[in-house]
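For the sake of transparency, this paper describes our internal protein records without simplification. The tokens are whole numbers drawn from a learned vocabulary of local backbone shapes. One such record is reproduced below, unchanged from the form in which we store it.

. . .
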Amino acid sequence: MFSGMNQTTSPALAPHHMALIPPERLAEIQKQYFEELAHLATNPNAIEIKDRRFAGQAWHSAWSKTIAASYLLNSKHLLALAHAVDTDDKSKHRIVFATEQMIDAMSPANFIATNPEVLENIISSQGQSIQNGISNLLGDLKKGKVSQTDETAFEIGKNLATTEGAVVFRNDLFELIQYTPLTETVYERPLLMVPPCINKYYILDLQPDNSVVRYLVEQGHTIFLVSWKNPDDSMSQVTWDDYVGKGVIQAIEVAKDIGGTEQINVLGFCVGGTLTASALAVLAARKKKLITSLTLLTTLLDFSDTGILDIFVDEGSVKLRESTIGGESGNFGMMSGLELGNTFSFLRPNDLVWNYVVENYLKGKSPPPFDLLYWNGDSTNLPGAMYCWYLRHTYLQNELIKPNKLTICGEKIDLGKIDCPAYIYASHDDHIVPWKSAYESTHLLKGKNRFVLGASGHIAGVINPPSKNKRHYFVNEKLVKTADDWFKAAKDERGSWWPDYINWLAPFGGEKKVASKILGNKNYPKLIAAPGKYVKEKISEQK
């Protein structure tokens, strides 16, 4: 195992990778490694251990500390070797990613024999922790994923997605929820929210104290929200065009009708933002001015730099998906939500995989309830036809940014024809939508744009209610050519970015009017109470 690597040899990559490292750099890395190894042999405290995996008191013994220090030393130099490989950027990123995955997997914390906390638990529990761990493991094998939270603690509609409202429209692709006003007066123009179809909508409506939906309703906005259906095999041929036309554009028309306005505001989150921008480009091609303002949260339009996700996408991988689920040669299928979820978890393996392997299986503990992690594990499938189009035309060929290159819903689209004001939010530590890539949307969209950069990651940066008074965000009224130059002149503001957004959105809401408690209208009557039925559909229940 990695932590027990023979300390008389330097860490090594595969031989063909070693051959690609310049000799002088290889010699430098090996020299530094042996020097630090010798120093560690004479002084076990030579490496300061700040890694939280080894923070427990049990790791403070001389033997355990030496194991951890040896592991960290080997990890450091394996990564140095990976970064030193002389090859193209994409190949290097793949080598580094694979090396990081191996390093994280081989942590001494992940094995019974080398984790002193696990050994102490076994002794103190008289072996019960091992029995509990095996039971947890068997349960997760049935589910096909590592449990990250106590799933029995949550129920959609009971303690998640509880903001009051009703489904006012349903087709085979989505339900449209309208929320009940919480103020005496409301802005005349509604706000339509389009969440990602890769996950369920209730990330925007977790619990009352961290619900984006509830916060916006409390500010006097009439909120409509798209709740995507969790696709089953019968939907394998549903396309990107369907999500744009029968999804986003249909939702815009319904919200506009119920709101009784010529225009509405629209918000897209992650892939929901990409779909929304596609829809607005289609409407622009049709010369329909239905949108007063656009909000994009952690959204990619320019896929020139997709960060870590780039290592998964090349011509070969896309062709493979197209031939198996994307309709090539008549083969259609589904992109499994479990597979997607597990892939995203391994982008942060120590936090979202190995931590739970240790706690759930080796220590025999049950994970505590956590609403965000419950949502994270509530997977959704994607239709093969839609998923393969998305992979090829965005991640692989980056064609959304090319005017009139793509035809969507029968229209040649040009993002440059979207000229409504846009609020573009990105998260600084986002590993799914790199913030500098999100900044490029300020150049693509031709309206008066505002860019705001929040702290933290893809989800935690967005779900940051003001009541918590956590984190910070950056603002700069002037949009310049590069993201780096924008950041250099940006002002650091403490707390949540939500109030900044509310101040920006207010003028686009129009006049205030008396709020009506009646949801829907004669064309689109109330169907069932929120959160509706689509959001409750689970992969495990689909046949």
In short: Residues 1-12 have pLDDT under 50 and may be disordered. The chain has two domains: 23-121, 165-305+384-536. Residues 23-121 form one domain.
